[in-house]
Each structure stands twice: as C-alpha cells, then as structure tokens.
User: Fold these one by one.
Assistant:
Number 1:
Amino acid sequence: MFRLLDPDQFRACFQRFTAGLGEGGGRVIAIDGKTVRRRPQSSGRPLHMVSAWDCEHQLVLAQIATDVKGHEIAAVSKLLKMLYLKGAIVTADAHNCQRSIAARIVGQGGDYALALKPNHGVLHAQVRQFFDGLQPDPAATHTTITDDHGRFETRTSLVSNDVEWLQQHHRWPGLAAIGKVTRVREITAKPLARTTTDAAYYLLSLPLPAARFGEVVRSHWGVENRLHWPLNAVMNEDLARSSRDNSPYNLAILRHMALNLMRRDDSRVSLRGKFNLAGWQDSFLTKLLRHAGPDRGAIAP
C-alpha cells in the first residue's frame, strides 16, 4: 500500500495532521536534512528527508524528500513554501545559508538566523575579521555556563547591527545584523581532560538581543537531538528495509506522524516506553490518537 500511495497527497495529510502549529510570533523553526542510510531506493540513491522542526513544541511541521543531499537547497525552498512563517525565526545550517533561502523567508514574512561558514569565503572572512577587531560593550554580550556529564561549556553571544559596510558589497536579502557565538568547552574527566575554543558566525534578518540570539541558535540543534536521534535510536529508521517505489518516502512521513503523536502526549514515560505501551495497551493507543483530532486550522495560509 505504501508503495502505491502518492507521497505528495500523504504529505498534505501530514500537514493537516499538524495543523494549529503554524502561528505564534517569535517561534523558532529549524530546517535540517537527514539521510536514511540502510539501503538505496529503487532509484539507486538513499532517501534524504528535509524537515521543518518547531523547536518550542518539538514537533515536525512539514517535510520534503530528495534523493541527493546536494539537491537539499532546492528542497528547502519548496519546504518553506508549505509553512506559515509570519513572525517566525527560521534557522538553518551553513549548507542552506543561501541568498535564495534568505529571500524566501523574508518574502513570507519571517526572519532568519543562518549559520555562516567558510563555504561563503569572502563573506565569512569579512564577518570574522569584523568581530576579531571589535571591542564590544559588555552590556551587549550574554554568557551562559552549563555543566553536564563532566563537561563545562561557556557560550558568549554577541550581536552587531553595523552591517551597512557589509551590504555595500554583498546585498544579502533582508540582512539586519550579524552575530557571533564563542564556545569554550572544558572536559574535566581524565584522561580526556582538555579545553577547546571555537567561534560560530551568523547572518540575521533582525537585530536580536544577545540573550535571545544565543537561545535561537542553540535551539536549532533540537532538530538533531529531538528528531534525528529518536528516528535512529528509538524508531530504527536507518535499519528500514523498504526501498521500492514510494514506500521509503511514505514510511518516513508516517514515522514523523508517530513521533509527533508521542511528543504531544504528556505522560511521564520515556519515548521508547510510549511506543511499547502503544503496542501493548489499546487504551494508551486510543489516548495518543486523540491528539490527531481534526479540530485545528491549517499550517499554510
């Protein structure tokens, strides 16, 4: 059955299923891709799913597939068209830090925080040099310290609205600020004790306060920890054996549906435990399915 289903129609059903999450100012939507690595599709290439992740609600909003990671940029543009972005901040990794994507986000009424790395050689070098020579006001920076599993991490966030000089050369769509996050990691457990320092740079379409900027860029990694990791570690996606016709794409959408149902349930049970209970107890399965009621609006306007 899943080989024969039209994945575009099934994806439309998924969007109705996640309806009601398309509004609310200030929310962060992370865009990221994941390759299903067990075996290739009938096309001979592995399925690469690009997903939109609501960082606040920890739910998949929409997804689109491509059979080549190099085609992800075009897929992201199509994915953004499916979303209601007004008032949202869209985050993406350096691979998707592209003019076309920035223009799409701003054109749909959203804002962006895009990671900038050396794949944009001149632009990245200029932003890095600017921050290296900057003497920031301590009041304009924000620092957080975390201590987890024997690792101390200090993150210092800084935002600058001085981008006119940059826009004269690059004309980046909607650019209003640039940001820098400096991360100092100290591992105390022997014999691996060490300290590392690195810096990450971002293009922003709105001048966020340093504290909010730090929250936004860090929340992006929820798509890895809360979506991609459970798909592999709990749902065994990379071991999926389906490979013919539309089945890999449709079953990937179905896994997103199942994960969303689990996330919407507030039972004090682990994610793996919820999957087990859904298989063991009809009452728990019925409770989960109630979260899929049709009493919400649509994601897309």
Number 2:
Amino acid sequence: MSAESFANINREALNKLKHLGFVEEKPKKNEKLRLKGKDSLIIVYNSNRVVVQGNEESIKKLKKLLTLNSFELEAINDTIVGTDEALKGDTFGGLVVAGVRANKRERKKLVELGVKDSKRLHFEKLTRLAKEIMANFAFTYIELLPEDYNRELKRSNVTELLNRLHLQCYIKLRTKQSKHIVDKFPGCRVGDIALEKAETRCVEVAAASIVAKYIGLKQLQRLSKLANFGLPLGSTHVKEAIREIKQRGLAPERFLKLHFSNVRKDL
C-alpha cells in the first residue's frame, strides 16, 4: 500500500466521498477526519494536511478529485455557466459581473488555453485569454459605471445587487441542461452550486473572472482618461487619488464608490 500527502483539498468533494462508499471512522490523535474506502484510506489532519493511502491507481483518482486546482468537477457532466465579478473591492470604478458557459468538450479547451484564476495572471496574458474566451465561447457581462453603481446602492445594497447581476448573467446563458456555479460571496443566494474560491476550482468561473477583470480594467482606463490622471486599483493606496478628484473639481460619483468609508473620510 502506497501513501501520498497533499494540501488544498476540495471540501465539497471530500464530503461527497461519504456517498461513494467511504465510511467515516473515529479520528485518531491530531486527526480531523478519517474516511475508509474499499481499497483506500483518507486522513485529514488538524493542520489540514491530507494523506491518502491505497494502491497507485486509487491515490491518483482520489488526488484528482480532492485537489482544488484540478478544474475537473467530473461528477458534473452538464453544461456549466460560471459567474464572477470584478471591481467589487476597488475604490475607483463601478462593478462588472461576467458569465461564461461551457460543455464538457469546451471545458477541456478552456483548460488547454491555460485559463486560471485572473488574480494569477499578468495583464498581457489576461488580455490575451479574455479575447480568446470572448471570441470562442458563450459569454456575457454586465458593467456598471460608478454613477450607475452609486445609483443602485441608494435603493439596494451590495449583496442584493450581486445576487441580481449574477442571476441575470446566468439567465442570459442558461440552457435546459446547464448548472450555475457562482463564486460565493457573503449573502450569496444564487447558483446551483456556490463555491468559495470557485475561480480556482471551476474553469468556467475562472474564465468569467478573466472576462470580468478585463472589462473592469478597460473601465478604469477610460475613467483615468476622463479624470486626466491614472486611477489606482484596489482600496489601499488611494488617498491621494481621492483628494486629486476633489481638488480638480470632478464629480466624485462618476469615479468613486461613494459608500466606501475611505471615500467618505477623504472627500
């Protein structure tokens, strides 16, 4: 019997093993979970390290199922619509929610293209992949400029807005056989499956994250041109840029998320 250890387990897949004939045994010292199969044993330690014991073939199959970065979700053979958003945490800019649809064959093509979580891509590769996705796969996006975003927040809240926009993207792309996988956010009430860090676990969500970020970056470029100076990404080093908006006499609602605490403080 061989053994292999690894990290970054897919918790949902781990739980599903109980429905595939694995029996939960009493954990030993320093163990969080112990699952016994017909020819394999899975041990999750308190440190979250995972050890799989069994023959080489069973270890290979289980590792593929349990690791976060496999992009497989092989139990789902249906068409998948993945949705994700961009600019949500940025002080400047509004909001973009995007969706990408793929069947099993198209899913493999996305993996072959090198699609991955947009946060792990430099600008040049993100741009190239976004254009590839938008040229060859079913996609959609909803883009709110800061003015639109601030208007929406006067009659709703961020959670309700995200739920609505993710659902709208799915409706535009859904088929009779499709499942909606969404990158889970606080208060998420949409999606057939809502996964934390879904962009690292579902290639359709990763593709949606790429499209959303690409559209979001293009929006910030347009706003920077309108403001006549470069607007920063994120929400950390933005104080001087907020003051610059004020000093230039520019309408803040056209560039900033007005409900952000740092915006209210520095305007």
Number 3:
Amino acid sequence: MRPADQAELTAIIADANARHTRLRLRGGGTKDAVGAPCSAALVDMRGFSGVIDYDPSELVLTVGAGTPLTEIEQLLAKHCQMLAFEPWDAGCLFGKAPGEATIGGTVMAGLSGSQRLTQGSARDHFLGLKGVTGGGSSFTAGAKVVKNVTGYDLPKLLAGSWGRLAAVTELTLKVLPRPASSLTVVAEGLTPRQAWRAMATLLGSNAELAAAAHLPAGTTGGVSMTAVRVQGFSPSVEARCQIVEALDTEGRRFTRVGADAAQSIWEALQSLRLLKEGGPLWRISLPARCGPDFLAQLGASNSEWLMDWAGGLIWYAGPTDAATIRCLAGGLGGHAILMRGDEELRMNVPAFHPLPAATAALESAVRRAFDGAGVFDTGRF
C-alpha cells in the first residue's frame, strides 16, 4: 500500500485496527534487513515526498518523510547548508544501490554520522512532525521554530523508534551553515588506548574538533590511523589545527592530510567498506573511555572493527557470539545493536539490546499509548 496523503494513511491504519492486522512502515527499504524477517503488510511511505517549506535564512526545513535523503542534501548544498548530524545511507551495509534512503527512515532509525560527536544526533535536530498513531489518529507535534517549549517533545521520542510508535508523514529539521573550511589531521601507529587518550585530550582543548575516529591497522592495510576533523572559518581552522599538531601523543604527532585522503577516511566510516562485507555487523555504543576496554576484553583483531565518536561508537564485524558481545557491552555501561546478519541469526537474536525490567516496562507503556492495538508490533524487533 502506498498512501498519497494523510487521509489515506489514516484509513489504512484504521482498517488494520478493525481487521487486527499488522503494518510495517517503509521508506526506501534500505534497512529492511535490520531485525527479524516479518510478514506484516507493507506501507510504502514514499508518497509523502517533497519539500514543504524551506527558509534558508531561518535554518529550518520541512519535508515529506518519503523524500530521498540525497535530494535534501543537494538542496541544502545549494544554499551552503547541511544536516549537521551527518545522516548516511544504510543501504551500503546490505549491498543496495545508493540514493534510496529517505529522510523519514533515516531519522526514525536515528542514524547519525561522525559529526554526531559534537553536533548531536538526529533527534537533536528534529523540531516537529505530523503523523498518525497506531490507533488511526492524526497528530502534530513540535513546531517549525528552534525555540519551542509547548507540549511534550514528541520528536525526540519518535526519533530512533524504527516505526514502532507512529507513521510519520512530515518532518521539520534544523539545518546549519556548511563550514567554509575543513581540515583532517592524522596520527599513525596509535593503539586504541593511546588513540582514545589523544582524542579525549583534544576534545578538552581549544581545538574544537568536529569529529574524531580511529581506524586500526588491519582496516587501513598498514598502520593504524587516528583522525580528527577541524572545520569553520579558514583563519580559525588554521589556528586550531596548530593546536592539534602541537600535541605529543607518546612520541607520535598529528599531521594534516589532503582533501582526497580526508574524504576517504570519513566516507569509510559511513560506508564501513573497510570491514568484511556480508557477515554479522554490530553497532556498539559505549562511554567513550570504555571503547578500548571493550575491544581488549573481546579480543578483537585489527581487521574487525572501526572506532568513531572518539571511542563512543564501535562497529564490529568479527565472529564473536551475540551473548558475549552484549554481556561485555552491558558490563561497560553500553549496548549493542545487531545491524546485519543472516536470516537465522536475525530470527534468534533480537536486533536491540535487552532492556532492564524498569525501562522495558516504561517503553511498553509508551508504545501502548501510541499503538494500543499493536498495529505496528510486527515482531521485527
């Protein structure tokens, strides 16, 4: 089913309530292989596409949820603006052609890139929405202004909900000016622990980093690489790069790389092309200081992982069993999401990290408030 407007979508959801059937919301389908396979009726949200309102001077953009992400990025680039949380197309993880991801699917999955470290996540830039609950009721939340304090902040609740609470048809997002200048500075040969120390030191300095990541030797084909990004106005970028270059990291120094090399580093952290393709892939979120501890306890080889967000995010593509990964991540105050796996693995291992009993009860209550009949409870998660 592909509704063209909110009235059609409301009718579809109301009919599902009456028939006690389940609905699966989908945009471009780039993340279909996340979670267990399910047979719920498909609702294609790409009928809600296009720019509804955009005022570059106000730094606010309102679009249909089914609008392709690439279309939005191209529009913003014409006005030297950007989505500061650096959303990315997850289709690359599953061998799909680029360009199919939609802005609704991206925000509902809470996907943010390397710049999330300093600019916040998708939910931090999500100002308002229109949608339909599982009970078939249309609603509006948030507003088309940055400073809005009216009512509950439902956009932050729905971001990252993976279509389990409501069908979002329209999103209002905060955008930011694109930096006039950007430089990447790299140190080679650091261990994960040394890399974390260096990144933490720089994040606490006046260097004002935009992003910080570490690529182990097994993924770079030679020597490990710790990369930080500095951006802004050219004179400021130059001065802050000098702060980075002055840091002595246990005998190793940061040096600048060219624009092509910089683009390759940050693109690799989005596409994950440096990791083994096709096998299980885990997204592990941790307190940044615990990233090296997790890798050490896991015994991960130098070709099985990438570290982003200054140690707060680890992508792991090794063979370790799910119970071990989740036990280690939970023990360090983090959680692990199964982003990719074969059908048997996805049928037997929940995509999301198990919640503590109190949190699970709260989540269940919130879901019942939005979707009392369980229309969106497809069993996928």
